[in-house]
Write a structure and sequence with these properties.
The structure is a homodimer of 334-residue chains.
Chain A: H1 10-17, E1 31-33, E2 40-43, E3 48-57, H2 74-90, E4 95-105, H3 111-127, E5 134-142, E6 147-155, E7 172-176, H4 181-189, H5 200-210, H6 218-224, E8 229-233, H7 237-248, E9 251-254, H8 256-263, H9 267-273, H10 277-283, E10 289-294, E11 305-311, E12 316-319
Helix pairs in contact in A: 2-3, 4-5, 4-10, 8-10
Chain lengths: 334, 334
């Protein structure tokens, strides 16, 4: 029988987790105090700290076993917990500096799964090039469902934060990262096309859903270049753009040809599942790319693609001046 | 039928919560950006930020309805989420500066219960005199059980953090706040003495369990006075003192007469339930008082009671030089 969480004390479980978080490197990374006291202490170079928090819950945000047979690994959940939090800092133009993590685990959870979760967290921080970010502490508890909450701090390194409310008519709307890939991956996970039989291109979409890769260099770069507004695309391009449009009191008009170009690489998955790939580009969340607005004179902006324009008008989102519903966006879809 | 969470959109629920958090006061309290963007921005006066995270889960950390008939209110859960996080900052000698909160809620949760949770959070911040602390953001999600995670930041205002590892033989062991009251309250909640029929003194113990009051002035005061080690008592006096003793490689010896004096006010509850009140003082958690060690020359220290001494020796905890098990401590009890 595999070792489960209810067979270990909290301190014994922690002893298995901490080394996997790279927590020992805390002091060398400019963090004053890491795990082991009541709170961690993190250096904040410019006297201001960004902070955000996000939770993933089993069967709501992920399934341990999907319809297509894929089993969500602890590594996936740890990676995604880090990625979605790091993305929130990126969206403000910041650089992540620390993570604290609270895990609620049923007693029957395998210890190996929890160890993988710690490895996924630290792999995401490393592979997404957030190497100045350190896991400094956390909390372990019991419950009937797996729930992982991370809170993240970040530094603006002297820059102003990029908020949602600064878009100006005449700005270019730009995007960094991927669009629709996580949604296509989710559709595959929920399909009956067995994961093991999928070709590599389609497996990569499942990976985009389970281990998203927010473009962590692009947030600070956009801030440096003077982006007027920015946010990450976590709930879908149209839905999130509408938030930015509302905060800025402008209309955001996407270029239908550009969106179609972004949809084309999703063609194979869409064909297999009988879907329109543009739906995923317009409505799909969890890619954690960046949506920003910039003055045309800073274009081209490395890492970003121009996807539309900011227009004066009511707070709304259009695609080629039409309602997104006319081009395949379903506002009831998740 | 009362309004439940599944009848409202996330944004409609947020609109009911945010005003109750006093989030509008964020800017005036020196916080740069409050809720509404991907991350909040908090001013950090001395270039270092303390950070901690804690989770409460339904049926693990609280029951919606207890054996004695008491119903845990949203206000209780919000208060406790704030209190236990604020206490972690206090334990380092810090002053809390911001809270972010992530709530996982079953769809059947009453909206009024969630509104009370927000009110409890902000009442705790206000009534515990943490008025420089602002709720700056959060996250709402669904699950099958209620789970509330808060992360807290704090400032040391230029002081050194007080860690667990600095206790020196010859130091006085001191305590601020209450001991055993939350455990006595828990025992009452788990008894069949109906809550409504309890006398005021016993109801106050239930309140100590549901709405603990960490002494938030005492942490910074102890740091200022040069406390050599400190932590909050969240898992029980003996258990937590053992952590401090281990981190500092010293023996902590409690004065049995002082502990007995602290146990005496719990006599009525102990008599009713047929328990030894000293058990609660030695083993009871969740009071979130402060355990600290100080050089004798700073005594008396306002707000703190001398409860023992730091002795050279193996990392252990004794009571009048005896094993705590000999005086009523049960290390298997929760």
């Amino acid at each position: 029988m595999p070792l489960t969480v209810n067979q270990l004390s909290e301190s014994a479980l922690l002893e298995r987790i901490l080394p996997r978080l790279g927590a020992g490197s805390a002091v060398s990374s400019g963090v004053h105090l890491g795990p082991g006291d009541d709170a961690a202490l993190v250096v904040v170079p410019d006297g201001r700290v960004l902070i955000s928090i996000d939770t993933q819950v089993q069967d709501m945000d992920f399934r341990l076993q999907w319809a297509n047979g894929y089993r969500t690994t602890g590594f996936d959940v740890g990676w995604k917990a880090a990625a979605q939090n790091l993305s929130d800092i990126n969206a403000m133009g910041g650089r992540p500096t620390s993570l604290v993590v609270s895990c609620t685990l049923p007693g029957s959870t395998e210890v190996a799964w929890v160890e993988e979760l710690a490895e996924g967290l630290s792999a995401a921080v490393r592979e997404l090039d957030a190497s100045t970010c350190v896991v400094v502490g956390g909390d372990l508890g019991r419950g009937t469902e797996i729930s992982v909450t991370a809170a993240v701090t970040g530094s603006l390194d002297g820059r102003a934060p990029v908020v949602r409310s600064g878009a100006q008519p005449g700005d270019v709307v730009v995007h960094a990262g991927v669009l629709g890939r996580a949604a296509a991956g989710l559709a595959l996970l929920e399909s009956d096309y067995e994961y093991g039989s999928l070709q590599a291109e389609l497996r990569a979409l499942v990976e985009a859903q389970c281990r998203p890769r927010p473009p962590l260099q692009s947030g600070p770069a956009a801030a440096e270049a003077g982006a007027t507004a920015m946010m990450d695309v976590s709930d879908g391009l149209v839905r999130d753009a509408l938030r930015l449009a509302s905060a800025s009191s402008v209309r955001i008009d996407f270029d239908p040809e550009v969106l179609q170009r972004l949809a084309d690489p999703l063609g194979a998955a869409a064909h297999l599942l009988g879907r329109d790939p543009l739906e995923w580009v317009l409505g799909g969340g969890e890619d954690h790319g960046l949506l920003a607005t910039v003055n045309p004179n800073v274009m081209p902006l490395a890492g970003f693609t121009a996807v539309g324009s900011v227009e004066a008008g009511l707070a709304e989102v259009t695609v080629g001046s039409q309602s997104p519903a006319n081009v395949g966006w379903d506002h009831f879809a998740d």
